[in-house]
Design brief:
Length: about 130
C-alpha cells in the first residue's frame, strides 16, 4: 500500500515560516515528480508547485519566491519550505506523487498525480 503522510502544519503569524514534510512509503518516489497542492475553504484545489526527479521546480505565481520545494530521495521524502506566509496561504496542504514526465501537460494537472496524502492544515493569521 502506498502512503504519503504530511506533517509540519500549524498556525503561524503573517510573515512567519513553516516547513512541511511528506513521508512516502510503499512506493519509491525518486523517479517521479513530486507535487504540493492546497485547498482553501470554498475554493478549488490548486497547485502550489512541483519538483522534478532532477530537482527542477515549478511554482504557482502566488507563491514564487516565497516557497521552496525540495526532496531527499534517500529518505523517500519531499518538503515544502514556506516563508513570508500570508493569510491567503491558509489552506489544507497536500503532497502527491506525479508522473515521470508531463508529456506536454500542465505541471499542475492533477489527474497525473495518482497518490495523495491526507493533508495538513496551515493557518496564517494577520
Amino acid at each position: 500500500q502506498v502512503r504519503l503522510v504530511e506533517s509540519g502544519g500549524g498556525s503561524v503569524q503573517a510573515g512567519g515560516s513553516l516547513r512541511l514534510s511528506c513521508a512516502a512509503s510503499g512506493y519509491i518516489i525518486g523517479r517521479n515528480y513530486m507535487g504540493w497542492f492546497r485547498q482553501a475553504p470554498g475554493k478549488e484545489r490548486e497547485g502550489v508547485g512541483v519538483i522534478s526527479p532532477g530537482v527542477i521546480q515549478y511554482y504557482a505565481g502566488s507563491v514564487q519566491g516565497r516557497f521552496t520545494i525540495s526532496r531527499d530521495n534517500a529518505k523517500n521524502e519531499a518538503y515544502l519550505q514556506m516563508n513570508n506566509l500570508k493569510p491567503e496561504d491558509s489552506a489544507i496542504y497536500y503532497c502527491a506523487v506525479g508522473p515521470l514526465k508531463f508529456g506536454g501537460r500542465r505541471w499542475d494537472a492533477q489527474d497525473l498525480f495518482h497518490y495523495w496524502g491526507q493533508g495538513t492544515q496551515v493557518t496564517v493569521s494577520s
